[in-house]
Design a protein that fits this description.
Length: about 325
């Protein structure tokens, strides 16, 4: 299949390069604040847009259909996202339809159409295979495994998932979890995956499945991060108004991985992880202030630093 955005593969990856594979989507989202139709979404989209606020380059691996706007790919490329691994195939782009109610902590999925993701097989260029940091954002765990099989010697490999895959591809997902360094889940997913009702115990059980770090996102209640010897609880930025939380988890992961890459972090560096989780929390908060990537798109580093300082002030006692 052709990829009109292909660029010649470079010999090696750039230092500190961050690779993400995951969904690139057109979403239909309803929240108490309104409705967005055919709006740009997808886990890898939110992740890479969030990450490039802090860190470049970001390599994007995914697939879109013939209906995906070319201007969006140009916009992503213009932000420093290397889209040479974003294939365009015959057929329709991945679509997700969902809504949020009440405290908007959990999305209710109405429709998931894998479309071109149904038979996508990622084939990474030699440059992409050598990325230093890798994130397997939410997508079929079978695809996450295919990327894991191709990457060479990354410093840190993280992964995310959601209830859809926990229920439909449990074995493949467990293999992914056993092979990554850092697993990111939200509270409901950790409980669904482990069968535990106590969240700390659920996180400990995920840790027992293999990764060295488990980050449990608790929406408005922040994130609980467990390592083998250390733990940290980072609050969410207190927001009095939320427009749309879609992509908050992916933006959290994008901010966190970008910060780890900026710090040149090795897996055992828990202090670097503490800082990174702070950035993730702040970027996720901005994400909730608009539909799609509208708010993320306009963010500059000083806005993030200012909010990070406010979050630190908030949580000092
Ligand atoms: P988040 O709110 O961070 O969990 O992620 C939201 C994004 O995940 C949306 O933009 C959707 O397009 C995407 N998404 C929804 N369901 C799936 C799925 N089953 N696999 C991959 N991505 C999905």
């Amino acid at each position: 299949m052709t990829n009109p955005n292909s660029q010649p593969a470079h010999e090696g990856s750039e230092p500190g390069s961050l690779l993400v594979v995951g969904s690139v989507a057109l979403d239909h989202v309803r929240t108490p604040a309104g409705v967005a139709d055919e709006s740009l979404g997808g886990a890898a989209t939110f992740f890479s847009v969030a990450a490039t606020i802090l860190h470049r380059p970001v390599y994007l691996v995914g697939v879109v259909g013939e209906d995906f706007p070319e201007e969006v790919i140009e916009m992503l490329s213009g932000r420093g996202i290397d889209c040479s691994g974003l294939d365009r195939r015959e057929g329709r782009t991945f679509r997700w339809k969902g809504y949020y109610e009440g405290d908007m902590n959990e999305a209710v999925t109405e429709e998931t159409h894998l479309n071109v993701f149904g038979d996508f097989v990622p084939n990474l260029s030699s440059k992409f295979r050598q990325a230093d940091y890798v994130f397997l954002a939410n997508i079929d765990p079978t695809l996450q495994l295919k990327v894991l099989d191709q990457i060479e010697k990354p410093r840190i490999v993280g992964a995310d998932t959601m209830n859809f895959w926990i229920q439909s591809k449990t074995d493949e997902l467990r293999e992914v979890i056993s092979r990554v360094d850092l697993m990111v889940l939200n509270d409901a997913e950790a409980i669904l995956l482990t069968g535990e009702t106590n969240l700390v115990r659920a996180a400990e059980k995920v840790l027992e499945m293999g990764p060295d770090i488990v980050a449990v996102k608790k929406g408005a209640h922040g994130a609980l991060v467990l390592g083998r010897d250390d733990r940290v609880l980072v609050p969410a930025v207190p927001l009095s108004e939320i427009v749309d939380p879609t992509g908050a988890g992916d933006s959290f992961a994008g901010g966190m991985m970008a910060s780890l890459a900026n710090q040149n972090a090795e897996l055992g560096n828990f202090d670097a992880l503490r800082t990174a989780v702070g950035y993730g929390s702040v970027i996720a908060s901005f994400n909730c202030e608009s539909f799609s990537i509208e708010r993320l798109k306009e963010l500059q580093v000083p806005m993030i630093e200012e909010r990070l300082q406010a979050l630190r002030n908030y949580s000092t006692f």
